[in-house]
Amino acid sequence: MKTKVCFKCGIEKPLTEFYKHKRMADGHLNKCKECNKTDVKKNYIVKIEDPAWLEKERARGRDKYKRLGYVNQAPHYEEKFKFRKSAAFKNAHRDLKLTKEEEAHHWNYNKGFERDIIILNKSQHKRAHQQMVLDTEFLLYRTAELELLDTKEKHLNYINKHLTSKTPPHANKNKKPNQSPTRATRSSHRQREATEPPDSIDV
Known about the structure:
Elements: E1 3-5, E2 12-14, E3 18-20, E4 28-32, H1 33-47, H2 51-67, H3 74-80, H4 87-96, E5 102-106, E6 117-121, H5 122-130, E7 132-135, E8 140-143, H6 152-162, E9 170-171, H7 183-186
Antiparallel strand pairs: 1-2, 3-4, 5-6, 6-9, 7-8
């Protein structure tokens, strides 16, 4: 079995542990798959703080969505998650008057919780959804371990645990101490009363 030494970690590994590359002498990169994955993850965490890079990636994603025919799958998706398109949810988003970089995250899609919203920036929102799956029976999210996040406190604790951004998530009913109200907070008198988040989360 052929092997080679990764120049990054210095460990000798089988060639199958290196990605193929036709321009390399042996047809494989000199950095092992594990080191490649680690570097890609580190680079991503740095790049997501760059608005220009984020916009470029979104444009690339939209192009891929059309080019690979994902657009043809949209009707099935829309039917499955049609509750997200209800007037109640749309009005809740409109009344928040979010900034360009803010997005509304619903922890509970059941009737009566349309305005019980968590405010996240775009990168936080994307990463939060990467760690959860929506249970369409209960209209609540489950963790990667399939635990049902059936309270707002559980939901906030879970996403706060997985977000690495300097700006933590916050509930729209509250504001940070010694900080002027955000747009979302200023419009909070129109929002449904929310469960107080735990003390460990900066809200």
